[in-house]
Amino acid sequence: MKTSQLFALAGLVGMLGLGAGNAPAQPAGPGNFSFDPAQFQKMILDRYREQLDVKDDPEWKVIEGRIQKVMDARREVGFGGGAGMMRLFMGGRGGGGPGGPGGGPFAAFAPTPVPEEEALQRAVDAKASNAEIKAALAKFLQARKVKQANLEKAQADLRQVLSVRQEAIASLTGLL
Q1: Would you tell me how many other CB atoms lie within 10 Å of the CB of residue 122?
Q2: Among the listed ranges 29-33, 106-110, 121-125, which one has the minimum average pLDDT value?
Q3: 77, 80, 111, 119: most buried by Cβ count inside 10 Å?
Q4: H or E element at residue 63
Q5: How far is residue 150's CA from residue 67's CA, in Å, rounded to a whole number?
Q6: By percentage, how much of the chain surpasses pLDDT 70?
Q7: pTM, whole model, 2 decimals?
Q8: How many CA atoms lie within 13 A of 87 on its CB side?
Q9: Where in the sequence is the domain holding 18, given as residue range(s)?
Q10: Which of 34, 37, 32 is nearest to 16 (CA)?
Q11: Which sign does the torsion angle of CA 70, 109, 9, 50 carry?
Q12: Quick one: three-class SS letters along 69-121?
């Protein structure tokens, strides 16, 4: 797997908001597929270990924990679109298709909107006054700044434990 493919795979995980508890496994059957987000995440972490050429288990434990924090923080930032992008592509407000929440095979993957995002969406939907929308937008943007700062801190913490070569690889894969 090339570095760009690894980046795409990691991006997919972040886009789908796949934390260990965010999407339950689906029972196999017509129209369903079996998916274990924890197993998928482990596969990605194993791939990062291989790419970073980490042979030592204690060293990997340190790096793995910091990679996990970066992945979690990146998911919180939402790759610049978060739940809104999921709603745009999957239809409806809840990611379940035009009928709203709960439907469709990808409903379990839609990230849960943050309160500031929900408040802004309500203001837009209600065609609130410009002052109300502006206030909700300011709170939403502030919450996003905090999440971005958390991501940058997690990336700085990861950078501290990587060699120069590993830092270059992590940069190419989108971790840094």
Answers
A1: 12
A2: 106-110
A3: 111
A4: helix 57-77
A5: 13
A6: 61
A7: 0.65
A8: 17
A9: 3-172
A10: 37
A11: positive
A12: HHHHHHHHHCCCCHHHHHHHHHCCCCCCCCCCCCCCCCHHHCCCCCHHHHHHH
DSSP 66: H
- Whole-number Å distance between alpha carbons of 125 and 47: 42
CA-wise closest residue to 71 among 12, 26, 143: 12
In whole angstroms, how far apart are CA 17 and each of 5, 145, 169, 175?
A: 18, 19, 23, 16
70: left (phi over 0), alpha (psi -120 to 50) or beta: alpha
Residue owning tokens 């379990």? 108
Type of residue at 110: A
Count of positions (residues) in the chain: 176
Instruction: Report the number of distinct structural domains present in the chain.
Output: 1
- The string of pLDDT tens digits covering residues 76-115 is 887 544 455 555 555 544 444 444 444 444 444 445 568 8
More confident residue, 3 or 161: 161
For the residues 53-79, what does the mean pLDDT come to?
A: 90
126 touches 134 (CB < 8 A): no
